[in-house]
Design a protein that fits this description.
Elements: H1 2-15, H2 38-68, H3 72-77, H4 79-97, H5 113-122, H6 125-137, E1 143-149, E2 155-161, E3 172-178, H7 185-188, H8 192-198, H9 205-219
Antiparallel strand pairs: 1-2, 1-3
Helix pairs in contact: 2-4, 6-8
């Protein structure tokens, strides 16, 4: 009887799972020009990110059906799609928040716990950006470069392949640079290093600093 009640509750929970939606941007598509054009921003947001959202919803529907039917093989088989589309949704949601127009403070890192940590570990923002750009340029194929808070409570720079999340390797994502061609090709063609150099002009350091403070506080619990 108890087991049947648990099964019924589980089925009800699965049935009401909310759909993921494409998040609105905090700024118009042309806000990051000339670093990132409105054309790229619109395509990136309404086409590429939207595709990850749709793919994640579809994958979760398949997972729900497999769970309801107790099909373990199908549940395992759907994991790569969940990882890819789920990561794409999470990574891009962070990415949009990490950016802001130059006229709105983009690129400006003010005194904060984050700035102190960057100065201590990397010798300043310029050295951090150079190191992270080189890491991003070394990505084979598609992926992301990340400034993270690692499990030792230190800042770290890592890369992830495809749409893998920084959280999947135990890091708290603070700042992500999208190294997929769709993020820059229309503006920079094959000179992706120029994109990596210029994107620092529109980094929303207030958002990055907030993520750092929250990560440190969470680790202290």
């Amino acid at each position: 009887m108890f087991a049947r009640a648990l099964t019924s509750a589980r089925r009800a929970t699965l049935a009401v799972r909310a759909k993921h939606t494409l998040p609105d941007l905090d700024y118009p598509y042309n806000a990051l020009e000339p670093v990132i054009s409105s054309q790229i921003m619109k395509l990136h947001h309404t086409k590429h990110h939207a595709t990850y959202v749709a793919g994640l919803n579809a994958a979760e529907e398949k997972l729900k059906a497999a769970q309801l039917s107790n099909d373990v093989q199908a549940q395992v088989a759907i994991q790569p799609l969940l990882r890819f589309h789920g990561g794409g949704h999470v990574n891009h949601t962070i990415f949009w928040k990490n950016l802001i127009g130059e006229s709105q403070g983009g690129g400006q890192l003010h005194d904060s716990a984050l700035k102190n940590a960057i100065d201590k570990q990397f010798g300043g923002k310029d050295k951090l950006s150079s190191h992270m750009n080189n890491m991003a340029a070394g990505i084979q194929g598609s992926g992301w470069a990340w400034l993270t808070l690692n499990q030792r409570g230190e800042l770290d720079v890592i890369t992830t392949a495809n749409q893998d999340m920084a959280a999947s390797v135990g890091h708290v994502p603070l700042l992500g640079i999208d190294a997929w061609e769709h993020a820059f090709y229309l503006d920079y063609m094959n000179v992706k290093m120029d994109y990596f150099k210029n994107i620092w002009r529109v980094v929303n350091w207030k958002d990055v600093a907030r993520r750092y403070d929250e990560g440190v506080a969470q680790q202290a619990k």
